[in-house]
Amino acid sequence: MSAYTPLTDEKLVALLKKGDQQAFTEIYNRYAPKLAGFAASKLYSLDDARDILHDMFVKLWECREELHITANLQSYLFSIIRHRVIDKIRKNITREEYAAAAQLIETVYTENAEKEIEAKDLQQNIQKSLNELPPRAREIYKLSREQGLSNGEIADKLQLSEQTVKNQLSTALKHLRKSLTGFAAVAFIIWGI
User: What pTM value is reported for the model?
Assistant: First the structure.
């Protein structure tokens, strides 16, 4: 028991304002356990509670000469710790929201990058497979799928019968399906193969 233990809060604050370190120590010993318990009950992290408490007492010492305590010391300290806990919770929520948003952006970016790579691979394989087709079948396929012409329009343009266009297009599609078995679902969705 120190000589400061029996002193009232008002006397301890008066001594603290004058820079009395033992008065500060007595205030700390008197209220730190209760304040720590309060902060720890509101925060997920015991380390966060300790940090808040430490920062509060450092600030109390640094600003001791300007202290204006209108209520009792305990209410004053609990009011400060309550506000600091609320600030910490707000910061944690903001940090968690930011982390969730960053994770979402990364996931979307990764998925888009993977889809782009898959689409490029598919495009390369389609082009390779198209190059394996006879020139007339390749031309009919391109007019149908890349330019969107109907079988009748292709027949008129190339001066072929519509049945010949259908047969050549059927041959081209069978060849593409066969050569793109690994990309079947993607090819169907993208190219209608």
Answer: 0.50
132-191: what CATH class? Answer: mainly alpha
- Three-state SS sequence of 136-170: HHHHHHHHHHHCCCCHHHHHHHHCCCHHHHHHHHH
- Closest C-alpha among 31, 39, 36 to residue 72: 31
Q: Which CATH class is domain 9-97?
A: mainly alpha
Domain locations along the chain: 9-97, 132-191
Is 74 exposed, middle or buried (CB count within 10 Å of its CB: 0-12, 13-18, 19+)?
A: middle
CA torsion sign for 60, 63, 64, 66 is negative
The span from the CA of 32 to the CA of 174, in Å, is 80
Q: pLDDT tier at 57 (50, 70, 90 boundaries)?
A: very high
Mean pLDDT confidence for 163-184? 79
